[in-house]
Amino acid sequence: MDAFFLPLVAAALAEWGDKTQIVAMLLAMRFAKPIPILIAIAAAAAINMSIAAFGGSLLTQMIAPDAALLFLALGFLFAAVGAFIPFRDPDAGEGWKIGAFATSFAAFLAVEFGDKTQFITAGFGAISPHWPFAAAGATLGVLLGCAPAVMLGSALRETLPLPTIRKGIGALFLLISSIIAINAFSLI
């Protein structure tokens, strides 16, 4: 169950205050159709997380278990550093006239590709023999992290200090990265 729940929690946390959550919020404000947006986010996240987890699983055939653990630590380090880098609001398909589902799917697929959640998911795919569970957990985590933005729209940004939350999660990921790296080097 660790192969499912750990990526779920990591992905859900990684989305808070991230550009993907902001895209979800902008899409919700633009279309005011939460169900098609959530379905599109789930589909795009499933594709991105499956690619990441499968890619990570391919590494297990080429590297030692300690190196796979270091790869996961690197994913968390990447997420931690990314949390401290400010960004502008991403494009949420403003000029696109292809409907709520298609716009949400394409925008989310593009914004999530190469994002920190994908790197963390690749790390979990590398350490777990059950990469489909890692992909499913991360997909659900992305959906859980973005659902409040879709349901609340701009109220999310107005009521919560998203940059502060993002930095707090970044600090947590830095700690997690350090602990995983120390374990991988067998220093404890």
Q: Estimate what percentage of residues fall within beta strands.
A: under 5%
Assembly form of the protein: single chain
Q: In DSSP terms, counting alpha (H) and pi (I) runs of 4 or more, how many helices? A: 9
Unreliable runs: none
Number of strands: 0
Question: What sequence of helices (H) and strands (E) makes up the elements?
Answer: HHHHHHHHH
In the residues, how many domains can be counted? Answer: 1
User: Judging from the principal axes of the Cα atoms, what is the shape?
Assistant: globular
State the separation between the terminal residues, measured CA to CA: 25 Å
> Helicity level, as a percent range?
over 70%
Helix/strand/pairing category? mainly alpha
Give the radius of gyration: 16 Å
- The averaged pLDDT comes out at 89
Q: Biggest sheet: strands, sense, closure?
A: none
